[in-house]
Amino acid sequence: MSHSDVHRAGDSPAKVELQEGETYCWCACGRSNTQPFCDGSHQGTGLDPVVFVARKSETVFLCRCKQTATPPLCDGSHNRTE
């Protein structure tokens, strides 16, 4: 996936409560109206969401700038300017 194909959905991470054993679909394209989760808006873009299962119930910060090197988790990339 090229970062140029991705839309920046926000300038800060989304604080999310994950539930152990639940499956989540993180929006990787930035087009979803249900950020940080996928709503199918990627259809036809060639981009796919990141599907993951929560290993434990916990609070996490999911990336909304879509530039993270550790998808779906925020790595602070939204703070970098290029």
From TrEMBL:
<dbReference type="GO" id="GO:0046872">
    <property type="term" value="F:metal ion binding"/>
</dbReference>
<feature type="domain" description="Iron-binding zinc finger CDGSH type">
    <location>
        <begin position="49"/>
        <end position="82"/>
    </location>
</feature>
<protein>
    <submittedName>
        <fullName>CDGSH iron-sulfur domain-containing protein</fullName>
    </submittedName>
</protein>
<keyword id="KW-0408">Iron</keyword>
<keyword id="KW-0001">2Fe-2S</keyword>
<dbReference type="Pfam" id="PF09360">
    <property type="entry name" value="zf-CDGSH"/>
</dbReference>
<dbReference type="GO" id="GO:0051537">
    <property type="term" value="F:2 iron, 2 sulfur cluster binding"/>
</dbReference>
<keyword id="KW-0479">Metal-binding</keyword>
<feature type="domain" description="Iron-binding zinc finger CDGSH type">
    <location>
        <begin position="11"/>
        <end position="48"/>
    </location>
</feature>
<dbReference type="GO" id="GO:0005737">
    <property type="term" value="C:cytoplasm"/>
</dbReference>
<dbReference type="InterPro" id="IPR042216">
    <property type="entry name" value="MitoNEET_CISD"/>
</dbReference>
<dbReference type="InterPro" id="IPR018967">
    <property type="entry name" value="FeS-contain_CDGSH-typ"/>
</dbReference>
<keyword id="KW-0411">Iron-sulfur</keyword>
<dbReference type="InterPro" id="IPR052950">
    <property type="entry name" value="CISD"/>
</dbReference>
